[in-house]
């Protein structure tokens, strides 16, 4: 049986690559090869960018209501095809069907937001800033923009990017993760069905060579990236030096502080879901819990909740599926062992787990490391697997100090019934996204993703109000219209009188 190949989208056509270099796409639960992904050639990347540049000439002048209606239709098409999209996502990424639907739905929220672009892309106007002079600003699109997306959210994160960029009047070149681009391509098909014109959205594939080509191409004006810290830093530095706007959402080490007055049952349930859901492959995964004071007595309860979680192939829709690849599994297991070697106690060990009927799957079960300290490798590195580090603090101040000393600033949470403690935490913590009795505080699109410090490069986040700023250039116009009265002489000052 011939393995299908993933096509590219160039100037409105889904085309086969002429490359001789292909990447195998495997089902992480079975290792079955389900498709081959091309390493897009340099000529093909140039064609995609040229198509986007040509389309920009007319798309930028397309009425804003026309753009808005495309995304109104697009959101309905996504809803109509939700089950198909989730099944595709599960097959190539591994997450459960329920989590896959959540992946698609959180992207859908951004599409809905983009459909209201007429209310988002408004400038400002002041009449008579001086005699007979009006001043106003307008937010104009930049041109060709690009997005580089990761494997862990192959629906949500592309939908963070191209809808907002295109709705604001730009054209776009998308590079999905080479590890699972099929659901992304289906979303792209639906976008064309919704009415996005040819050349406005283009898709190329591949690894580092494609990333570097996007960073270097002189006709690409802005790049949005989500992925690892190492790659994000490379993209930011290389693209910034090429004169582009860049936003990079990168790695994390997210902590939850548990105070002894927290609602115990609610807290334990949310901890288990946030630490082990999606097999820990979330940049917002809750990978560290700091137990304050008498909350140290909850360790046994945390372990018992984790033991009840069921590991299975994603299509079986249990609690967590496999990690993305054999290499990812090996890395997670190496970091678990490093924790044990450096003095952490392995209270629950998910290594070596086997799932009946899927013996070749990349499975790691829920794992809990106790008495973790800040100098341990399992703490300093982002594990990106279903592993929870447990730490201890005698006070809220001590817990805050631990979190603020960590270089990352993606997300954090506190569990407490004390309003004063929660207020102190949100004020003193140096992390971009804070949850109060909520473990994964990802903002809805009317706000924006606001990770900080080493978790982010660039000053504007994806989607929401900040994305409108990122994808547009503010132009300020100062206008005076003379009547028939003669000018009263030459003004050699900078005054607008």
TrEMBL record:
Give the GO biological process terms: L-valine catabolic process; thymine catabolic process
Superkingdom of origin organism: Bacteria
Q: One MF term from GO for this chain?
A: methylmalonate-semialdehyde dehydrogenase (acylating, NAD) activity
What are the coiled-coil residue ranges?
none
- Per UniProt, the enzyme's principal EC class comes to oxidoreductase
Per UniProt, the keywords (alphabetical) are: NAD, Oxidoreductase
Q: Where is the Aldehyde dehydrogenase domain?
A: 14-477
Task: Provide the protein name.
Answer: methylmalonate-semialdehyde dehydrogenase (CoA acylating)
């Amino acid at each position: 049986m011939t393995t299908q190949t993933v096509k590219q989208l160039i100037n409105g056509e889904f085309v086969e690559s002429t490359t001789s270099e292909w990447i195998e796409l495997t089902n992480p639960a079975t290792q079955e090869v389900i498709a081959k992904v091309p390493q897009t050639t340099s000529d093909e990347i140039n064609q995609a960018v040229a198509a986007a540049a040509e389309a920009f000439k007319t798309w930028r002048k397309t009425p804003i209501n026309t753009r808005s209606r495309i995304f109104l239709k697009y959101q309905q098409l996504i809803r109509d095809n939700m089950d198909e999209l989730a099944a595709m996502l599960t097959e190539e990424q591994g997450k459960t069907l329920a989590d896959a639907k959540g992946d698609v739905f959180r992207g859908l929220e951004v599409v809905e937001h983009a459909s209201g672009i007429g209310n988002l892309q408004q400038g400002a106007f002041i009449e008579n800033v001086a005699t007979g002079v009006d001043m106003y600003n307008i937010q104009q699109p930049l041109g060709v923009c690009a997005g580089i997306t990761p494997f862990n959210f192959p629906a949500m994160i592309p939908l963070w990017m191209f809808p907002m960029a295109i709705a604001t009047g730009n054209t776009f070149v998308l590079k999905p993760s080479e590890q699972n681009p099929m659901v992304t391509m289906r979303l792209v098909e639906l976008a064309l069905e919704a009415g996005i014109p040819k050349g406005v959205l283009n898709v190329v594939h591949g690894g580092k060579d494609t990333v570097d080509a996007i960073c270097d191409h002189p006709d690409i004006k802005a790049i949005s990236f989500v992925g690892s810290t190492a790659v994000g830093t490379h993209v930011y530095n290389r693209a910034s030096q090429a004169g582009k706007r860049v936003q990079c959402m990168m790695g994390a080490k997210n902590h939850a502080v548990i105070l002894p007055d927290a609602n115990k049952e609610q807290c334990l349930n949310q901890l288990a879901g946030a630490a082990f859901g999606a097999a820990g492959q979330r940049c917002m995964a809750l990978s560290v819990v700091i137990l304050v004071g008498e909350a140290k007595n909850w360790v046994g309860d945390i372990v018992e909740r984790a033991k009840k979680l069921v590991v299975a192939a994603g299509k079986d829709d249990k609690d967590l599926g496999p990690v993305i690849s054999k290499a990812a599994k090996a890395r997670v297991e190496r970091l678990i062992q490093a924790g044990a070697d450096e003095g952490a106690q392995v209270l629950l060990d998910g290594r070596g787990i086997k799932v009946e009927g899927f013996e070749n799957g990349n499975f790691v079960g829920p794992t809990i490391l106790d008495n973790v300290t800040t100098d341990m490798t399992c703490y300093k590195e982002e594990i990106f697997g279903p592993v929870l580090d447990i730490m201890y603090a005698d006070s809220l101040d001590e817990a805050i100090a631990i979190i603020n000393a960590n270089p990352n600033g993606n997300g954090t949470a506190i569990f407490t019934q004390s309003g004063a403690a929660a207020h102190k935490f949100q004020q003193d913590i140096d992390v971009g996204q804070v949850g109060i009795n909520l473990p994964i505080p990802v903002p809805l699109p009317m706000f924006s993703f606001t990770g900080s410090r080493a978790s982010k490069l660039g000053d504007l986040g994806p989607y929401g109000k900040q994305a409108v700023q990122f994808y547009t250039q503010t132009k300020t116009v100062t206008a005076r219209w003379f009547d028939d009265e003669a000018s009263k002489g030459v003004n050699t000052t900078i005054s607008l009188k």
